[in-house]
């Protein structure tokens, strides 16, 4: 176990570190104490049933208790359906019963679902308490950084939420070894996204190292997650609240979020929907004048890491178009798209016509 890689999310008084390395859960107690987490107020760990079935939860509890923290744990059902107001309220009940006060900390041990949900509880409980992200999926290199926390509404993803930055991110790479194959690919979707928006060399690296990533090679994973987190940290440091630049992190999400909602948050994992959405955005880019290579490279690299690149035919086009109107980038009656104008470079286009998007959705269905 070497020294972890450390990045800083630079946000003035809300700045925080991201530690990426092996065995970090066993050091949690020490790190929490170093970062001023209160020993006097109870801590609540939120995790899901799959993670609780392994040994990461036990290790985290034990490390925190040994350091003198009072710990209680809430276990939610695994999967996107836990990002709901119902589960949110159950967690608030748990927090009250466990005696959490305004100096308490909520710890999210899990993937993006646990992180978004627990983070939203932390943002709202007593009008906001501290939280720490302990990501356990590849996808969560994205969700644990940047402070977007939310639950879903049946009509729209992440529509009830807040910006609430964690105190730190403790990314223990050992946890990733137990991820199911499908979740590995889904997580790599946002890794590739960070390359597509920011770093063409990293896209080429993902292509060359796809087999190593899929085999969970620790060195390749550590590098990929460090690169992904670096891009995310750089972007959110410049524009915490998505006034402008941060929107680029939404590449593939205009179509992707709509697909997730229309599929009832069940058929497609977030990373899978975003993969299809990024292929759609690349198609759009070509229609708007980008080189055909943007589309072929995007599709190729996403396929290489085991992701779907075709739009499921059973999802109704009208419903997809309607769902897109609930996107947070749909403002003042117009649709904003993140357009990959070259590999590694995107533009924010505020005037994409709904008819062009419909044409692309239809074309993608015909290819399926
Ligand atoms: N806030 C953000 O900036 C942001 C960014 C990207 C995605 N998201 C959100 O993240 C969510 C998706 O996150 P996700 O893909 O991590 O999904 P997830 O949290 O549902 O985790 C995926 C699955 O893997 C299981 N799992 C987690 N860690 C495991 C481990 N170490 N070993 C074995 N199984 C494990 C979980 O129980 C679950 O079944 C979506 O809701 C998405 O909207 C948020
Ligand atoms: O952090 C961001 O900003 C992102 O857009 C990252 C996305 O990968 C993530 O899925 C995010 O939750 C989407 O945000 P939303 O505001 O479109 O709900
Ligand atoms: Zn996403």
From TrEMBL:
Its main location: cytoplasm. It is an enzyme of class 4 (lyase). Pfam families: DHQ_synthase, DHQS_C. Residues 187-329 form the 3-dehydroquinate synthase C-terminal domain. Signal peptide: none annotated. Binds 1 divalent metal cation per subunit. Can use either Co(2+) or Zn(2+). One of its GO terms (molecular function) is 3-dehydroquinate synthase activity. Residues 74-185 form the 3-dehydroquinate synthase N-terminal domain. Its cofactor is Co(2+); Zn(2+); NAD(+). Its EC number is 4.2.3.4. Keywords: Amino-acid biosynthesis, Aromatic amino acid biosynthesis, Cobalt, Cytoplasm, Lyase, Metal-binding, NAD, Nucleotide-binding, Zinc. It is found in: Cytoplasm. InterPro entries: Dehydroquinate_synthase (IPR050071), DHQ_synth_AroB (IPR016037), DHQ_synth_fam (IPR030963), DHQS/DOIS_N (IPR030960), DHQS_C (IPR056179). Pathway: Metabolic intermediate biosynthesis; chorismate biosynthesis; chorismate from D-erythrose 4-phosphate and phosphoenolpyruvate: step 2/7. It catalyses: 7-phospho-2-dehydro-3-deoxy-D-arabino-heptonate = 3-dehydroquinate + phosphate. Zn(2+) binds at residues 190, 253, 270. NAD(+) binds at residues 112-116, 136-137, 148, 157, 175-178. Belongs to the sugar phosphate cyclases superfamily. Dehydroquinate synthase family. Catalyzes the conversion of 3-deoxy-D-arabino-heptulosonate 7-phosphate (DAHP) to dehydroquinate (DHQ). NCBIfam families: aroB. This is 3-dehydroquinate synthase. It comes from Paenibacillus mendelii. The gene is aroB.
């Amino acid at each position: 176990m070497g020294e972890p890689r450390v990045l800083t999310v630079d946000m003035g008084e809300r700045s925080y570190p991201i530690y990426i390395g092996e065995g970090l859960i066993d050091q949690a107690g020490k790190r929490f104490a170093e970062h001023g987490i209160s020993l006097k107020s109870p801590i609540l760990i939120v995790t899901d049933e799959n993670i609780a079935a392994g040994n990461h939860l036990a290790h985290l509890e034990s490390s925190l208790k040994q350091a003198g923290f009072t710990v209680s744990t809430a276990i939610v059902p695994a999967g996107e359906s836990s990002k709901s107001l119902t589960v949110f309220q159950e967690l608030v009940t748990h927090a009250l019963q466990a005696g959490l006060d305004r100096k308490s900390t909520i710890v999210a041990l899990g993937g993006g679902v646990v992180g978004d949900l627990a983070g939203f509880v932390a943002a709202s409980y007593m009008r906001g308490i501290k939280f720490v992200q302990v990501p356990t999926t590849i996808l969560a290199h994205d969700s644990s950084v940047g402070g977007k926390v939310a639950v879903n509404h049946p009509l729209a993803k992440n529509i009830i939420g807040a910006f609430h930055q964690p105190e730190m991110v403790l990314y223990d790479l050992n946890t990733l070894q137990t991820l199911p194959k499908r979740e590995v690919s889904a997580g790599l979707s946002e890794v590739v996204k960070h390359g597509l928006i920011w770093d063409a060399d990293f896209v080429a690296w993902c292509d060359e190292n796809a087999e190593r990533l899929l085999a969970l090679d620790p060195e390749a994973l550590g590098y990929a997650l460090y690169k992904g987190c670096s891009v995310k940290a750089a972007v959110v440091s410049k524009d915490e609240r998505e006034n402008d630049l941060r929107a680029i992190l939404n590449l593939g999400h205009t179509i992707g979020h709509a697909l997730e909602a229309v599929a009832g948050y069940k058929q497609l994992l977030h990373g899978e929907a975003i993969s299809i959405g990024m292929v759609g955005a690349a198609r759009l880019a070509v229609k708007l004048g980008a080189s055909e290579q943007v589309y072929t490279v995007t599709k190729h690299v996403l396929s290489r890491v085991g992701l779907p690149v075709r739009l499921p035919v059973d999802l109704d086009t009208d419903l997809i178009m309607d769902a897109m109107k609930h996107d947070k980038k749909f403002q003042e009656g117009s649709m904003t798209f993140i357009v990959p104008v070259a590999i590694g470079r995107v533009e924010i286009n505020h005037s994409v016509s709904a008819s062009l998007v419909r044409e692309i959705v239809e074309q993608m269905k015909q290819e399926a």
